[in-house]
Amino acid sequence: MSNMVEFARMNGLGNKILVVDMRGRKDVVTAEAAIALNAVAETQFDQIMAIHDPKAQGTDAWIDILNSDGTKAQACGNGTRCVVQALSAETGKKVFTFQTVASILNAVEHEDGTISVDMGKPVFDWDKIPLAEEFADTRHIELQIGPIDNPVLHSPSAMSMGNPHAIFWVDKDPMSYDLARFGPLLENHPMFPERANITLVQVLSPTTVRTRTWERGAGLTLACGSAACSAAVSAARTGRTGRKVTIDVASAPAPSQLTIEWRESDDHVVMTGPAEWEWSGMVDPVTGSFTRDQEQGAQAR
Fold it and tell me: Rounded CA gap, 19 and 14, in Å?
């Protein structure tokens, strides 16, 4: 199968990632291939990170990001860590610069195996997030789910971390909320013309928060890096925490912690956490048919 390319199933805190090597090719991973891969249990994923040849001087690669429904994503921090681990294992390099449709991302793999990704500057302007209505202060916008006099969720912080995010503050464990029911309603709410990632955040201390995310285009996810960044920034921005926090990702398998620092020096958000290789194989980027290494493997349609 001459059209097959190498790919790896990886995860970042349980965030299911497929890293596909498209270097040396002019084509892309199609939406049809993404949907086909997501329909098979062993290749079900939150994001595909397709590594392409660099487009800009000084960068190591262009990263095309797809959601599990075949739509494009602008950012994926957990997936970026997986790309770093894969390329570091291949090349021995520890420092990388990637270009995505949203921004330039700088990343480094540390001696302990954790990986830091500079996710860039957060965006707070209502029209750049974007929101459908003007809000002078996006630290809390008018939006709620549930009865008017006793809403289940209300007054989220809104921002962009390369993609739109709504952060809802909760008093209980985020796992105790029916996010599978609220998530689709909020993701597709008219307030968000480009849809939004929806995150529930419980503040545990001035340095620790607990999160759970409904991811735009992917649904309930074990972890979402840009959502973790948005939770940390929004917590600091609303005075709930300082500018460096540990994120306890409620839905992720243990150990499930990310460190997020919103640097005062340049306003950049730096995320540090693990990545894990699971298995590798070959995939057709047009159809999504695949084989696992050292076995015949199931074939996606």
Answer: 14
Provide Rg for the chain, Cα atoms. Answer: 19
- Domains of the chain, by residue range, sit at 5-117+276-292, 144-267
CATH class entry, domain 5-117+276-292:
alpha beta
Provide the mean pLDDT of the chain.
Answer: 93
- Closest CA relative to residue 122, chosen from 14, 231, 222: 231
Q: How many CB atoms lie within 10 A of CB 71?
A: 14
> Could you confirm whether 229 is annotated as catalytic?
no
CATH architecture label of 144-267: Roll (3.10)
Sorting pLDDT into bands at 50, 70 and 90, what band is 74? Answer: confident
Catalytic option among 63, 224, 247, 271: 224
- Of 18, 76, 131, 143, the catalytic one is 76
| pLDDT tens string 231-261 | 999 999 999 999 999 999 877 666 568 999 9
- For the question of residue 82 being annotated catalytic, the response is no
Residue (of 261, 273, 264) closest to 223 by Cα position: 273
pTM: 0.86
Q: DSSP secondary structure string, 140-175?
A: S-S-EES-TTS-SEE--EEEESSSEEEEEE-SS-GG
- Answer whether 5-117+276-292 and 144-267 agree in fold: yes
